[in-house]
Design a protein that fits this description.
GO terms for molecular function: oxidoreductase activity. This is GTP-binding protein LepA. The protein is mainly alpha-helical and 283 residues long. It has helices spanning 4-18, 34-53, 55-65, 71-98, 113-121, 125-160, 163-192, 197-210, 219-232, 241-245, 247-254, 264-282. The chain has a single domain (4-282), classed as Ribonucleotide Reductase, subunit A, CATH 1.10.620. Helix 1 (4-18) packs parallel to helix 4 (71-98). The termini are far apart. 37% of the residues are buried. The model has no long low-confidence stretch (mean pLDDT 92).
């Protein structure tokens, strides 16, 4: 039976071999109704493109908060995850320009003060273990959100009749996201089992005050995320996005809290996004 480290190494190797960055020349950017497609999905494309392109900044954040990460983590985020995700962003950004929208506005360099402080503390190995767990939890939530979003986006694009976009843009991207989620889930489950009680308490506390939906760093982006949820029909299909995104997180961090369907900070974050979008629309 393979050890956890061997399984993880095999998974990362397989991702790199089977899912190289999507070649731009493989994409058919034909859109039969650019105006209608842009009106319906333009803001979703912009949000997704920005989030994917900002992976470059995310790597800076990771290297700041994890000064001495495991070799397999470095291999994953530098050789597999970053190249794939950046290419997703470039493709989506080009598509939104094809339908007449401006390119995404991105922040590729800013690393917040809180992360820099975490990075200083993370030179202490026990605290870096806490930071690693937070990294895996964030990765899980981010990639699970992406899996859901791209599947719903694919359904909507198929419904709109834009076959080229569905088959050569959204479908190839959505095939790559589950492998990223699997990496974070495998890592989180294994790492959680190694943490001491005080480290687990600290992870729970820090996670509860730092959680945010993917790509949300300010109030405007919170409302943008709410608009994306509305356009993709997350709540109209009977899906509890918060519960879906945080399923493994709830199991690991909060299993002792019987009856808790989803951590309250996750539910609150998604609810706030919907309310922010509604308030902006009303204004």
């Amino acid at each position: 039976m393979l050890s956890h480290s061997d399984r993880l190494a095999a998974h990362v190797a397989r991702l790199g071999e089977e899912h190289p960055p999507i070649p731009m020349e493989s994409v058919d950017f034909t859109v039969h109704d650019p105006e209608g497609f842009g009106a319906r999905f333009g803001h979703v494309l912009d949000y997704m493109a920005r989030v994917e392109l900002e992976v470059d900044r995310n790597v800076l954040e990771i290297t700041t908060m994890l000064p001495d990460p495991p070799e397999i983590d470095q291999l994953f985020y530098a050789e597999v995850w970053q190249p794939q995700e950046v290419q997703h962003g470039l493709i989506l950004d080009r598509l939104q320009q094809v339908v007449g929208r401006p390119p995404a506005t991105t922040d590729l360099e800013h690393v917040g003060l809180k992360l820099k402080v975490l990075g200083l503390l993370a030179h202490l190995e026990p605290f870096q273990d806490v930071c690693r767990m937070l990294y895996y939890l964030t990765g899980m939530a981010t990639e699970r959100s992406a899996v859901i979003a791209y599947n719903l986006m694919h359904d909507g694009v198929v419904e709109s009749g834009e076959k080229a976009v569905a088959e050569t843009v959204i479908a190839p991207i959505k095939r790559q996201e589950p492998g990223h989620y699997a990496f974070y889930q495998l890592s989180a489950r294994s790492h959680w089992a190694t943490l001491a009680g005080w480290q687990r308490w600290l992870v729970r506390r820090m996670r509860s005050i730092s959680f945010a939906p993917v790509g949300v760093n300010n109030p405007t982006q919170l409302a943008d995320f709410g608009d994306v949820m509305e356009t993709l029909g997350v709540h109209h299909q009977g899906r509890d996005l918060a519960a879906d995104v945080a399923r493994v997180e709830q199991e690991l961090l909060w299993a002792r809290s019987r009856g808790l369907a989803v951590p309250d900070y996750v539910a609150r974050a998604f609810r706030d996004a919907v309310e922010a979008a509604e308030a902006r629309a009303a204004a």
